[in-house]
Amino acid sequence: MFVTPAFAQDAGAPAAGGFADVLIQLMPIVLLVLIFWLLIFRPQQKRLKAQQAMLAAIRRGDTVVTTGGIVGKVTKAVDGEDLEVEISQGVKVKLVRGMVADVRSKAEPVNDNKPA
To answer: What transmembrane ranges does the database entry give (predicted)?
Structure first.
C-alpha cells in the first residue's frame, strides 16, 4: 500500500560497496585504539623510560626514597647491582635498585683518589 515501485525494486538488490561498509564499521574501533595509545600507552612508556634512567643514574652520595618510604643516603652503588643505603648513622641496608621510588638530592661526584 505505501510501497513505491522504486523502493520495491531496491529492496531485492544486493548491497553495493562491501569494502566501504566494512571500513566504516571498523573506523570506531581504530579510533578507540588510537585514543588509548595516545592517552594511556605512550605516556606510560615515557614514565617507564624516565624511571629506568633515574635508577641507572643513582650514584654514591645520593639521597633516595624507597617504595616503602625509607629515606637514606647511598653509600655503595655498583652498576646493575644492589645498592647499599645508610638509613641512620651506622645502619646500612642492602636495597634492590628497582625499589627506589625517588632520588631526592643528587650528590656531587665523589673522588676516591683525592687524599683526605
So the answer is: 22-41
Model pLDDT for residues 63-109, shown as the tens digit of each residue:
999 999 999 999 998 888 899 999 999 999 999 999 999 998 876 66
CA distances 52 to 47, 55, 96, 110, Å, are 9, 5, 13, 22
Question: What 3-state DSSP class applies to 85?
Answer: strand
DSSP secondary structure of 55-83: HHT--TT-EEEETTS-EEEEEEE-TTS-E
Classify each residue of 2-14 as buried b or exposed e, where b means 16 or more C-beta atoms within 10 Å of its C-beta: eeeeeeeeeeeee
Q: How, if at all, do strands 100-105 and 83-88 pair?
A: unpaired
Rounded Cα gap, residues 94 and 76, in angstroms: 9
What is the third-level CATH fold of 57-105? SH3 type barrels. (2.30.30)
Segments making up each domain of the chain, as ranges: 57-105
